[in-house]
Write a structure and sequence with these properties.
By secondary structure, this protein is mainly α. The protein is 67% helix and 7% strand. The protein folds into two domains: 86 residues, Orthogonal Bundle (Hypothetical Protein Yqey, Chain: A, domain1), CATH 1.10.1510; 51 residues, Arc Repressor Mutant, subunit A (Orthogonal Bundle), CATH 1.10.10.410. A hairpin with a 2-residue loop joins strand 1 and strand 2. Helix 2 crosses helix 4. It starts with a strand and ends with a helix.
């Protein structure tokens, strides 16, 4: 976005960049946490507290600052736990708790990058399998390892598995 200012008779154009695009995921989480506190959004606040605690625990475990990949792994772990909780609550006929966790799940998913389209996933799978020299279903474990590295967290493991199985048929 450009912002044009008049200085005497000279006009200067200043590029105004969105700070949000340069923020790390942790900075985004922290700013959303502060906003949720100010706006008294209880669901978002409790979800962000749990997420920040999980991130801090991971940082303590690793004994170093977290990378973006580490943060995304923690977020995916929290999402997986939420999905497991939803299944448990629904099987126990506790729809009130399941609805609460669904709200948290939707909120957590906004911190993940957009998933690959099916076409991009299929293309990446074919390229990774060709690069690794895998063409038989017998090498499914090696194939999954190669493709998961190529996908780099941009697709769900279940989708990747289905795409690999389809490519190896």
């Amino acid at each position: 976005m450009f912002l044009i200012r008049e200085q005497g008779t000279v006009y200067t154009a200043v590029v105004v960049l969105s700070l949000y695009s340069f923020m790390s995921i942790i900075e985004t989480i922290n700013s959303d946490f502060i906003a949720a506190m100010k706006e008294k959004k209880e669901v978002e606040l409790s979800t962000l507290r749990l997420l920040r605690t999980a991130l801090k625990n991971k940082q303590i475990d690793l004994m170093r600052e977290l990378t973006e990949e580490d943060v995304l792994a923690v977020i995916r772990s929290q999402i997986k736990q939420s999905k497991d909780s939803i299944e448990s609550f629904e099987s126990a006929n506790r729809n009130d708790l399941a609805d609460k966790v669904k709200g948290e799940l939707i909120f957590l998913e906004r911190y993940l990058p957009a998933e690959m389209s099916d076409e991009d996933l299929e293309k990446t799978v074919r390229e990774a399998l060709a690069l690794a020299g895998i063409s038989a279903k017998v090498d499914m474990g090696r194939a999954m390892g190669a493709v998961m590295k190529a996908v780099a967290g941009k697709a769900n493991g279940a989708r990747v598995k289905a795409a690999v199985e389809h490519a190896l048929e």
